[in-house]
Amino acid sequence: xxxxLLLEQSLNGLQFGLMLxxxxxxxxxxxxxxxxxxxxxxxxxxxxxxxxxxxxxATGSFLLALPLAIVATGIIGVALEISVLRRLYQRDHxxxxxxxxxxxxxxxEGVRMIWGSQPMMLATPAALxxxxxxxPGLAYPSYRLLVIGVGLAVALLLYILVTKTRxxxxxxxxxxxxxxxxxxxxxIRKLFTVVFGVGAMLCALAGALLGPLLAVQxxxxxxxxxxxxxxxxxxxxxxxxxxxxxxxxxxMVDTIGRAFLPxxxxxxxPPQYAAGLGPGLASILIYLLMAVVLFWKPQGxxxxxx
Amino acid sequence: MxxxxxxxxxxxxxxxxxxxxxxxxxxxxxxxxxxxxxxxxLGVDMRDGxxxxxxxxxxxxxxxxxxxxASDDQFNPDTGKQIVDRFVKRDRVDFVTGxxxxxxxxxxAPTAFESKTxxxxxxxxxxxxxxxxxxxxxVSAAWQNDAFHEAAGQHATxxxxxxxxxxxxxxxxxxDALTGFKRFYxxxxxxxVYVKLGQLDFAAELAQLRAAKPEAVYVFFPxxxxxxxxxxxxxxxxxxxxxxxLPGFSADQDIIPxxxxxxxxxxxxxxxxxDLDNAENxxxxxxxxTDFKRIPSVYAxxxxxxxxxxxxxxxxxxxxxxDREAVMKALKSVKARSVRGAYRINNNxxxxxxxxxxxxxxxxxxxxxxxxxxxxxxxxxxAYAKECxxx
Lengths: 306, 391
What we know:
Distance between the termini of chain B: 60 Å
Number of domains of chain A: 1
CATH architecture of chain A: Orthogonal Bundle
Largest sheet of chain B: 8 strands, mixed
Number of strands of chain B: 14
CATH class of the largest domain in chain B: Alpha Beta
Structural class of chain B: alpha/beta
Order of helices and strands of chain B: HEHEEHEHEEHEHEHEHEHEHHHEEE
Largest interface: A-B, 42 and 34 residues
Number of helices of chain A: 11
Oligomer: heterodimer
CATH class of chain A: Mainly Alpha
Number of helices of chain B: 12
Shape of chain A: globular
CATH topology of the largest domain in chain B: Rossmann fold
Number of domains of chain B: 2
Helix content of chain A: over 70%
Strand content of chain B: 15-25%
Radius of gyration of chain A: 20 Å
Helix content of chain B: 25-40%
């Protein structure tokens, strides 16, 4: 196997991992600070992608539609938090799971009623539809490079926000010990509304960026939500750093597994078994990763609560 | 409130009972297909083609009023099985048709076979039902799964392509696809890659493809999978170095409009094309465009032919659809009108027909469309028929 192949697969893994991070960042804070399981997080991702596709068609400009979709999804997220989720913080996890699962069904059917059951087309901006020659023998899709760039920038921005600003300090305080933070006079409710809004905006960003690579369709949130949960469990609930490391790990393991496991099996097994076993095992690899991490570090890699 | 519901409810009940009494003068068809999600455009086209045929037949099948119940299997084999169960037990349909995906067909069709309800396939034709496991209650108005790929393999061989990389989803039709291609392709195989059915991001697979440096790549990705694969293949700059060879499934009107210009010049294989020169086809293509404001795909053509085959069979048994054995005999022996031209049904229920080479180009109006440029197989039968014990 060549160095170029390894490099290209690493870029793919990085791109996938960064998008998972955008989803996991919001999810981990919501889970960490309010001890709230929000299954509807994936629905915000779907809503963001649909708004992006609609706005991109209406305005004819990817760049103009992106901030609009992000802000609109943020507003929807805040409205959802104030109207529904706020009532669930004091309830047990089962009620939260039931209520937010209902939200998933409502969101999916709502989207189907508004936009129909056929997937929407979201085209890559024309300037980014071709490849970029990174190295001799390696032409990489320019749009994926943009996705990587935006993902890295947002990760850096979040890191500065959480570690260097006052709001970030409050968020960390809330995540590590909610009662103590409240006792010290932090308005956790307001803080949480802000966190939830930011989480929704990150979802919309992920949905908008992944739209042209995947498909904008009902139910797109659930598939990726499961991966986002794996990420936060691996990284440690409530920790932004954990979410980043977890997301990159999951992204890399998934991509590398899909690419190299079938190759490995072909070396050691007859082809008819390798063809079935390789892809099958590759798809459970991230769950194996989760099991291994949980075995050695039951709190995840970077637990927020000491 | 209750009074408001009561009247329509009573009417509906009356209608339900009335229809039971008059069952003899109508044909009931249970149409189950994938109508939603990225995999759903195929089912929608098939359904629209079926409905256009019904319109051409004046809402009748074989002279009897047609009653169509349509259901969405949501791309889920369990849901598909439940729907067919409902069709044969509750609705007591005379025909079941419409399943697009072979994994769903393999889960759902046995329910129809057990109740001796004729299943007329408008798409999926898994090898499992073509050989030893053939069923007396199965007829296909489309093709056996391997067929387009056999034609593509033959095309690759005759073009002298000698190093092909193969890709397909890991499900029954994906395995049939690559088996079919390899049956007629004589050159070297660079690699054979299966991905998860429904996968939409091919970054990892495209990197492997680049590293393997094949002369050509043959992919069977239906529907949304095909749209994403071809877009990402072009975006990764691979289209300059690697020839893309496709079956008709990955190069038809469900995919072309979404991908656009990069599709121009791609060769693919199918049993039908919008420019096939026969009267049925001209009328079908023109009316489909008028009614649905888009060019019909191969799936729409299959839906149309399925309705025409059912129509011919019901006519042949003079409306006695309760006699299932006679209906099956008629389905296998009638000469139905077809947009693909003449075809006949083999002992295993699958068609014997021509397969064409098509190239994607522009028509007089500047739209991107498939054009026929040659015939690859004439009266081609599948390789499994001789293993089928049916006569």
